[in-house]
């Protein structure tokens, strides 16, 4: 039962682990945050403190409560410590199937059969992750989007053996910590978000591959038109507002002209072959000097914090 969950085991201190740990701590939960080394724990705690300070800067937390929030997060370097008293597990270690199977297999021996395991994988099959567990019914995917402390959505994905109890408990817990969980009917590669994201990216790449427009024109179109509308109305709401007769008419001639390739885009393959992997290497589709990366990350974070403030005010709850 949801009321029985008091302590969270958070496996991972990398890209999203600290943000997930903080999200649970903000909701009042005690968190055992596991990292393989003391250095990774110290890095995770430092990142949490930085995020919390940003929240304070924007009035999203009470300054006087910050020490109490930090005290709820306990960094540990052994799985025995990580599982001590834990009632729910959330995992965000490296995106590698065998690594996830191994760590869940290890912690299964340290807890009761009722403990629910949630993986924040961005695309791996929950059925495959649970394949080596004795109690496969306990595992579910809870895909937090990055940055997890700012993005409300969490995709909840059942595997072939996931029990109804594991699914419902995970959904209820996510709601309690202020997230917007969406529960899939069944597992599928990429879940919902990445399927939509990569469908859009495939067409965006096709537009520049075929010479229709530049990458700058594509990005500008998304930022100053579609992106602004889609932050308020999703694809089906947007279609209804446009008129389904109009959508049907456009579909009749446009769909056959859209990209349906199953191959990786030539322009993407070329960039990868040249070692231009994006911001992390200094160049990709664009050049990324350090100051540019810092600037765009700050702008994105500021925008997400603004949306988070609106979420707390029920800004998008028109349906309710």
What does this structure look like?
- With 320 residues, the protein is an alpha/beta fold.
- It contains 13 helices and eight strands.
- An eight-stranded mixed β-sheet has the order 3-2-1-4-5-6-7-8.
- Strand 5, helix 6 and strand 6 (139-144) form a beta-alpha-beta unit.
- Helix 1 packs across helix 2.
- It is globular and about 60 Å long.
- The model has no long low-confidence stretch (mean pLDDT 95).
| Strands side by side in the biggest sheet | 3-2-1-4-5-6-7-8
Give the oligomer, counting copies of the same chain as homo and different chains as hetero: single chain
| CA-based gyration radius | 21 Å
Percent in helix: 40-55%
Q: Could you say which overall geometry the principal axes of the C-alpha atoms support? A: globular
Count of helical stretches: 13
**Poorly predicted regions:** none
Primary descriptors:
12% strand, alpha/beta
SSE topology sketch:
Blueprint: E1 7-11, H1 17-26, E2 30-34, H2 38-57, H3 66-71, E3 73-76, H4 79-83, E4 88-91, H5 97-108, E5 116-119, H6 126-129, E6 139-144, E7 153-158, H7 164-176, E8 180-183, H8 193-209, H9 215-230, H10 235-242, H11 244-254, H12 266-273, H13 290-312
Parallel strand pairs: 1-2, 1-4, 2-3, 4-5, 5-6, 7-8
Antiparallel strand pairs: 6-7
Short description:
The chain has helices at 17-26, 38-57, 66-71, 79-83, 97-108, 126-129, 164-176, 193-209, 215-230, 235-242, 244-254, 266-273, 290-312, and strands spanning 7-11, 30-34, 73-76, 88-91, 116-119, 139-144, 153-158, 180-183. With 320 residues, it is of the alpha/beta class.
């Amino acid at each position: 039962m949801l009321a029985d969950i008091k302590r969270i085991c958070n496996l991972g201190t990398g890209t999203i682990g600290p943000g997930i740990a903080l999200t649970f701590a903000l909701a009042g939960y005690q968190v055992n945050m596991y990292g393989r080394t003391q250095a990774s724990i110290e890095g995770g705690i430092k990142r949490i403190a930085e995020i919390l300070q940003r929240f304070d800067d924007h009035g999203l937390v009470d300054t006087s409560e910050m020490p109490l929030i930090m005290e709820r997060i306990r960094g540990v370097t052994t799985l025995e410590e990580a599982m001590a008293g834990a009632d729910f597990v959330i995992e965000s270690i490296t995106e590698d199937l065998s690594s996830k199977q191994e760590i869940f297999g290890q912690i299964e021996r340290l807890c009761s059969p009722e403990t629910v395991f949630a993986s924040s994988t961005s695309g791996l099959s929950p059925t495959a992750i649970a394949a080596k567990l004795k109690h496969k019914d306990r595992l579910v995917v809870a895909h937090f989007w990055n940055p997890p402390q700012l993005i409300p959505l969490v995709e909840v994905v059942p595997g072939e053996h996931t029990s109804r109890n594991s699914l419902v408990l995970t959904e209820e817990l996510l709601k309690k910590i202020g997230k917007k969980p969406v529960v899939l009917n069944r597992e599928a590669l990429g879940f919902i978000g990445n399927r939509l994201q990569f469908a859009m990216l495939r067409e965006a790449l096709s537009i520049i591959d075929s010479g229709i427009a530049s990458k700058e024109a594509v990005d500008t179109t998304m930022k100053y038109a579609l992106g602004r509308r889609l932050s308020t109305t999703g694809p089906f709401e947007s279609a209804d507002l446009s008129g389904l007769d109009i959508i049907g008419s456009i579909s009749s001639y446009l769909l056959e002209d859209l990209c349906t390739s199953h191959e990786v885009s030539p322009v993407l393959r070329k960039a990868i072959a040249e070692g231009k992997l994006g911001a992390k290497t200094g160049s990709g589709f664009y050049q990324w000097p350090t100051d540019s990366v810092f600037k765009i990350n700050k702008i994105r974070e500021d925008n997400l914090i603004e949306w988070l403030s609106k979420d707390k005010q029920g800004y998008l709850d028109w349906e309710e």
